[in-house]
Amino acid sequence: MKNHQSDLCASYIKIFIVVSCYWIVSIATVFVNKTLLSSDSVNLEAPLFITWFQCIVSFMICFTLSKTGGISGVFDFPEGTPWSKETIIQVIPLSIMFTLMIAANNLCLKYVGVPFYYIGRSLTTVFNVIFSWILLRQATSHKCVLCCAFIIFGFYLGVDQENLLGSFSLFGTIYGVIGSLMLSLYSIYTKKKLPVVNQEVWLLSYYNNAYSIILFLPLMVMNGEVTQIWNYDNFNSAYFWVQMIIGGICGFAIGYVTSLQIKVTSPLTHNISGTAKACAQTVIATQWFNETKNGLWWTSNIIVLASSALYARFKQVEMEENSKRPIPEEKKSLV
After folding, report:
1. Cα separation of 300 and 319, whole Å?
2. Distance CA 111, CA 77 (A)
3. 184: closest CA among 263, 143, 127?
4. What is the torsional sign of CA 177, 182, 187, 189?
5. 171: closest CA among 81, 281, 26, 47?
6. Looking at CB atoms within 10 Å, which of 40, 184, 282, 287 has the fewest?
7. What are phi and psi for residue 140, nearest 5 degrees?
8. Could you give the angle at the alpha carbon of 280 between the alpha carbons of 274 and 284, nearest 5°?
9. At what angle do helices 47-68 and 85-111 cross, to 10 degrees?
């Protein structure tokens, strides 16, 4: 009995540490990226270049881990190379979505404040429902659809109040919607591409970062960043490069702690943790940047957060119910 209680206590402590790490790394990543993208200390009008450099840092970390086999006693890094012709053909469509997703996310963060960032990217759940029906023909329950309707209403109310407070950014909101759309598509197609990498999430991250380094080059040119980079005066500043490297490490770390949280808890717990983290992030950001928001602005956040949490719970219940249903004999061969 004592051993069982000891094991249970150790398990709870492990979960608490992992969830705490996820919160710290995730919130820190948003604030670090906001500093890189918008602060006067960096003052580089090249958001895609900053995102591209973060992909390089993540790729170098993955490349090093692939050579060492991972970190002894912590995790093993699977074997694989992104430069196989067959792998490139299979994974490059997903990498295009990955590139557009992280580009849109950072462009959104550049133009909107951290307090509004979660609302700006809150339509991912809605796009998940839409694309799941269009691409996978998966129906969604009325309760989940109702949650999506409340999320859309919360998003509209948040945009309206942000505009009323004079801090609304049209470009930032558009990039937020695009980021939500690409994240939804990326999540759906990830399920299809994981078999290509033997269900190894780390390999997929390794390959995505490798291909994104190349895919970002034409995007930087189209965004007019070549001139900005050429005329930038702080490339000889150690402080600038320290900030850039920290941003890259945070970008890699968020992928690791996200996977780790899902592993030690569950997808539902991860969604609830992410929702609660977004709430804490919004509160911290309003205090950090000394921003005053009205009651309706906070109401929009509560609506989106509560609707997202309820959606995750309803989906979990649906999945549990579906797993208990007997499969007809004639359909067993198709499963």
Report:
1. 29
2. 36
3. 127
4. positive
5. 47
6. 40
7. -120, 140
8. 140
9. 140
Burial 185-196 (b: 16+ CB within 10 A, else e): bbbbbeeebeeb
Query: Two tokens at 164?
Result: 């009323």
Closest by alpha carbon to 118, among 298, 264, 318, 323? 298
**What are 190-197's contacts with CB under 8 Å, separation 24+?**
190/94, 193/90, 193/91, 193/94, 196/87, 196/90, 196/91, 197/78, 197/80, 197/87, 197/91
- Single out the residue of 62, 57, 37 nearest to residue 48, CA to CA: 37
Q: How far apart are CA 52 and CA 54, in angstroms?
A: 5
Contact 240, 97 (CB under 8 A): no
